[in-house]
Design goal:
Blueprint (H helix, E strand, L loop, with lengths): L5 H17 L26 H4 L44 H15 L18 E2 L5 E5 L4 H6 L6 H12 L8 E4 L13 H18 L3 E5 H9 L5 H4 L4 E3 L2 E6 L2 H6 L4 H15 L8
Parallel strand pairs: 2-3, 2-4, 4-6
Antiparallel strand pairs: 1-3, 5-6
Helix pairs in contact: 3-6
Bound molecules: uracil.
Uracil binds next to loops.
C-alpha cells in the first residue's frame, strides 16, 4: 500500500481527534479515557468501543502557554487526563478536628520529599495548604508562585493579599477557610502546570478535599476549574452556577492574579463569591 505523506497523516490524525472531541472525548493524554456524560453511552458509536475500553493509545497533546483568563477555552490549557476525578467513598464519616488534622498530616507524609514530577527540581518548599481542617469553604488555586515557594504557604504574595480581601469581604477570616492548589510545587516562571504535573499532584488535592469535605469549593481560575471539573470549557461557561464535586458544591471564579491585571472583573468575581455565600448561608458584613 502506498505510504501517505507525513502532512496527510497529520491532517488525518487531527481530523480524527476532532471527531472524538465532538463526541465528548476530551482526553488525548496518555491513553484515551472515556469522558462521557451519564446516560450518553448509548449514543456513542460502536466504533468507539476500543477507545472507551482504553485499548487505543492516544497522543500527548501540545499544550499552549500561559492562560489568559477571560474568554479562555480550556483547550488552551493543560488538558486533564480524566474528565472527573474518582468519586469519594460513598459514606465518609464525619471526622473530628483531630482526625482531620491527622489525616491531612498523613497525606503530607505520603507526599514526602516528592520527586514524582519535574516540578520538584525547581522548588524550595512544597506548598501543601493553609487554613482550617474544619473549613466549610475551600479555595483552590493553580500552583505556588515565588512567595509561596519561599514560605511554603499558598497565596501569600500579591494575589494572596487580594484573596485575603475577598475572604474578608465574605465576612470570613483566612484561618476559617482552607486554601490549596492543583500543584504543590512552583512551576518554573509561574507557567501553567503541564498535564502530567497536574495529574500527578491532583490526587493529593482530592484526598485533602475528602478529608476537609468543605460544603463549598471555589475554583480560582481556569486551571483549578479544569482539573477539578475536568471540563474543557471557557471560564465564562463555568462561572455563575453551582457545580458539584466530590460531595461539595463548586463555584468557579477568576484567579486573583487575573483580577490584579484586570480589576474591572472584580465585580464579576464578587458576584461569584456571592453565590458561594448564598450556598453557605452567609451574609456580607456591613461596610464600615
Ligand atoms: N497563585 C496560585 O494559584 N496559588 C498560589 O498559592 C499563589 C498564587
Amino acid at each position: 500500500m502506498p505510504r501517505l505523506p507525513d502532512s496527510a497523516l497529520r491532517d488525518a490524525l487531527i481530523e480524527r481527534m476532532r471527531f472524538y472531541r465532538d463526541l465528548g472525548l476530551t482526553d488525548f493524554y496518555r491513553r484515551a479515557v472515556p469522558v462521557i456524560e451519564p446516560g450518553a453511552e448509548a449514543e456513542l458509536a460502536p466504533a468507539l468501543a476500543p477507545v472507551l475500553a482504553g485499548e487505543v493509545e492516544s497522543h500527548d497533546p501540545q499544550t499552549a502557554g500561559a492562560p489568559s483568563e477571560g474568554g479562555l477555552f480550556a483547550e488552551e490549557l493543560a488538558i486533564p487526563a480524566r474528565r472527573s476525578s474518582p468519586a469519594p467513598p460513598a459514606a465518609l464519616p464525619i471526622l473530628t478536628f483531630e482526625e482531620r488534622a491527622a489525616a491531612l498530616k498523613s497525606i503530607l507524609d505520603d507526599i514526602g520529599d516528592c520527586t514524582r514530577c519535574a516540578l520538584h527540581k525547581g522548588r524550595n518548599k512544597i506548598v501543601f495548604a493553609d487554613g482550617s481542617p474544619m473549613a466549610r469553604l475551600m479555595f483552590v488555586g493553580e500552583g505556588p508562585g515565588a512567595d509561596e515557594d519561599a514560605q511554603g504557604l499558598p497565596f501569600v504574595g500579591r494575589a494572596g493579599q487580594l484573596l485575603n480581601n475577598m475572604i474578608a469581604a465574605m465576612g470570613l477570616k483566612r484561618e476559617e477557610v482552607y486554601i490549596a492548589n492543583v500543584v504543590k510545587c512552583r512551576p518554573p516562571g509561574n507557567r501553567t502546570p503541564e498535564p502530567a504535573e497536574a495529574n500527578t499532584c491532583s490526587p493529593f488535592l482530592f484526598r485533602q478535599i475528602d478529608v476537609v469535605r468543605p460544603e463549598v469549593i471555589v475554583a480560582l481560575g481556569a486551571t483549578a476549574a479544569t482539573y477539578l471539573l475536568g471540563q474543557r470549557q471557557p471560564l465564562a461557561a463555568l462561572r455563575g452556577r453551582v457545580h458539584s464535586f466530590r460531595g461539595s458544591k463548586l463555584i468557579v471564579t477568576y484567579h486573583p492574579a487575573f483580577l490584579l491585571r484586570d480589576p474591572r472583573q472584580k465585580k464579576e468575581a464578587w458576584a461569584d463569591l456571592q453565590i458561594a455565600m448564598r450556598e453557605l448561608g452567609l451574609k456580607a458584613p456591613a461596610r464600615a
